[in-house]
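Schema walk-through. Below, the input block comes first and the output block second. Nothing else is stored per chain. Lengths vary across the set, and this one has 336 residues.
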Amino acid sequence: MKPDRLNIRRLLAGLALVLLGLLSCSAYNVQAGNAPGQPAAAGALLQLDTQCDDQSSSQRLPRFARLMHDPQWMGYSSRMAAPDWNKNFYYDRYPQTVQLFLNPKSGDGRLRYSAEWLEYLRELQPNDNAAVWIARIAAGLFNPSGNVPIPILDLSQLKQEPVAESISSGGNVVKILETRNGSGRIEMIFMREAPPDPGYMNYRNFPWLVTKFTSISIDGELGNAGGIDVYFPNLAKQQEGYWVDLRRVEFFPPLPFCATARQDVLVLSSPGGLAKRVGILPAGGSASIREYLPQASDVWGRLDEGWVRLLYLDPAGYPVYPTSWQMETRPPILYP
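--- output ---
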């Protein structure tokens, strides 16, 4: 793709994200009951009079889960605080990588990126600076062993297909399809198929198939790898996907889940700010969550009457839970 067309596509994608963010903020304001000039409209919406039904929850697969951050499973604030960490190898922050395997607990899943997949990787990024960072050798996705610098902004100069590590990153969502011997097989993108449209297959629409790279400081403070928003696809060289150690995951609460609203929560006809408003789950009211849909760093839940947002990030990047639904593992920080 020519650079000018690439920049136009990124500009349009950025404008779309801004629009969705504004609409999302509008939905939040109605939920919180503090939207300027909107209390009457919110009050006009039907207040749902619901109760949770039989909560014989199921743990059937597939199930969404979130990859834990280092302090949750290591016993240290971060891997850099571990006694065996090489003290000569120190940064203010370190990428939070989670190893993925060909088989339960074993098997090298590293793979080569073709020029076509490198183009897809480039187009996932919000700008050229992010594209250069994610393609940088030793940044996390591509390590020095056997790799040479990647001309990500001009792939006509590519001389060698780089080898990518078999990783995801802490805080990201995965969809677990089966479990075996303490490992979970996750849904991934099969690399032998043509790269998908990055305008469709991206972190906002499919956060279990596209990873947002996260980092952690020696004190356990969470952040973005490189201090910016960077993404990479969950690619696998086998169609059935890869495996992750279940000690590294926190499953979403089993369904159905009885969620009690901490505030008035807007119910929409479908996930997202463009959906029709169908009602309000009033503060203190309860309803059964039947289905989950992660979208970027948010999580939506389906009621019988519509969809509610179970998790979103405030402007500082901290998670907000409008109902009693909650998880320990924080999602990646996102700056739309």
